[in-house]
Amino acid sequence: MNQGSVQGSGGAVALPVPTSVVGLTAEFTDPLWRISVSLNPVEVELLRTEPLRRLHFVAHGGASTISTLQSYSRLEHTLGVLALVAHFRPQDELLRVAALVHDIGHLPLSHTFEGVAGLDHHAIGLQSLRTDPIHPLIEQHGIRTEAVITALDGQPPSPLTNRTGLLNLDHLDSFVRSGRAAGRLDTDPALILSRLDLKDSAVSADHETAASLVDLICAEARLHTSWDSVGPASVVRRLACQLLDNTTLTPARLARMTDPQLWSAFDSCAVTRAESAKIRYELHRLNVTAGHAPANPSDWGFALRKIYNSAPMVEGQRLEASAPELAAQLDALRSLSTDFRVWWS
């Protein structure tokens, strides 16, 4: 259909734009990579399910959306990963479905609440895949749920996920999309894409492009260990624990909230209301120091669970052999502090 108005019996009909995320057009065009994806019927139906729609109201950047412009949604990232899979493996329907559902287990504010009350977005995602509405939907299209789960498990490695320490398409989209949001992306993503290939299910590039990707990976690690990420994440994590301790909210219900629902719950609870307002409107009063400083009654500890540093290959070879100086840059990320003390001034 043309992206204009079509004259019908009731007048001009408004048509959806190419970046519509509800499957109303035959193609979805990802605005970052500028890849047009011809949507399969199963993909259209998945985009209209509650688990996928919910991701449109979960910030990919987590709590750093409070302090930065990392405000794009987990669904935007999901569709970016679908676009990359469709670019490299257009006929792999199983991998395309896996790309669409790979993040459905994420908690509100993405990774911020991992581990709270034992919550694990991977386990939640697998449970969601095995239940309504995802399980019957993909099965009726001839796609086995367990095959999708295997594709997401990373064993054997796939272009979507792997446990080899090499860059996959999921992390590729995260690093480049975050770089665009932070204004540190100095190369056209479409140009980056033209210089990429898949080698043994990992992203491979020429040396110049690999260097640009390593810069983005290092910048992302510095974001995760910055005041802008650590401070807000530590506060909202504490608030979530207080909600669970002082209300009837269950961990299972918390896990399925959207970001707006979470903020509404914070504002509705007498125990969390004041600090919920403070983290949004007086964020400049928050202090963060790295390391294990002596605790005092007014501060609290916060620890990052991991730093993402998956490496691209260069011309099909690992960085250690093909570009040791780039490997050294990623290895230096190990020195970043993952333990912090936080307090209000």
From TrEMBL:
Residues 70-211 form the HD/PDEase domain. InterPro entries: HD/PDEase_dom, HD_domain. Signal peptide: none annotated. SMART domains: HDc (SM00471). It comes from the Bacteria. This is HD domain-containing protein. It comes from Streptomyces piniterrae.
